[in-house]
Specification:
alpha+beta; D-Maltodextrin-Binding Protein, domain 2; 2 domains; six-stranded mixed sheet; 18 helices
Amino acid sequence: MKTHFRYKTVSVVMLVTVLLLSACGGGPETQGASASTGSDSETPDASGSTGDAQEKVTIEYWQYEYPAKVGLIDELIKQFQEQNPNIIVKQTNFPYDQYNEKVATLVPAGKGPDVINLYYGWLPRYVSSGFLQPLPESAFPAETIERDYYPLVSAAQIDGSYWAIPTSVRTLALFYNKDLFAKANIDAPPATWDELVDVALQLTEKDANGQFVVEGLAWEPGAQLHHYYRDGLLHQAGGEDLSEDRRRILWADTPAGLEAFQYLLDFAIKHKVGTSGVFTDDATAFKTGHAAMNIDGSFRLGSLKTDAPDLNYGIAPLPSYKSRSAPSSFWANAIPANVSGAKLEAAIKFLQFLTSKEVQEQWVEKVGELPAQKAVASQDKYLNDEKLGPFIRQLDDSKAHFFIDEANERTLFVDAANEVLLNQVPVEQAFQSLVEKTQKLYDDYWAKADKK
């Protein structure tokens, strides 16, 4: 797929406005900002020299505060500097909810990073705002990326160029509570749409007042279910997400869009096997044993290991319908537009290091996310892993929705679901309104982009 942008410089005020977004599945936020270095190396002066015979260059890496990632990057910086003693890497972190604001304020002022970690759904905004430069073709050839990485990486391609590259990726699967399955004499997780409904009904428990004791399927549209619709259910029903030029929403072009939307909402409004907010959220409901099944991401493995070490659960591929499809996402590393010269060369080396096989394997072990490259993920030690294997086996069928405004797109989906659930608006009406409002977001975005 290709999109067509024409770029120009925009004001700091405009940048702050367009970049105050949030992304799904990013992990918990913490307070305060911090900066850490992976080395005790002497800090260079303004010329880039430490006073030694050899010239040194310092680059800065930005990511949001997520403890497992921050700690691992510190370790990786030390490894990288051992291999590249003339490059010093400083890591700077910001609270998740402040991340985009910091970028919008500091990057135009020339105080930003040399390598930046971004949620893939933010890329169109960053690119159209002139924040990033394309990955150098000499170091990251498009044909190599498309050969070595899973198809979902195409979401980082804009106007024929790749603007970011991931170390790891995420996809969704079915989490299920083995003890609750055994209690209900259910031998295996559901493999089809119909089986998912049947099993969820069997596993649902309510008290004498009709209140949930156990949700058969956790149901939280604002968590992962809006992804499940776009890149899972919609395609499984035979529909398409976006037009080739990424300008038009295709959900209503075939009956599949409404069918998938109805199927998802029916878990709450017809089958009544789960509902929003009943046990705080879907992840909490599952880890406390109050949800027998949950659609969630590979990123959840780490927190379950920490927060619910005794939970007896399994992972299964998403139930299929007419075909298979799994939602996926990723955080990727990019190079800001103003990086040049020795800093650009150092940034490229650091990006190449972060996408190496050795680093991807460390990412699996320390963070729990899946390797981005096929050759790494398809190793037996991962494919045969009880928890990782089901996620990895879905990656060839995975898709990543090309968000132009992730936060607002998610909000519109949640609002449409609530219109049906809370206000008894007909599903067809809520769906049509959702399509129209989402299309307007795209129309407004492209109208501005075309003027640049």
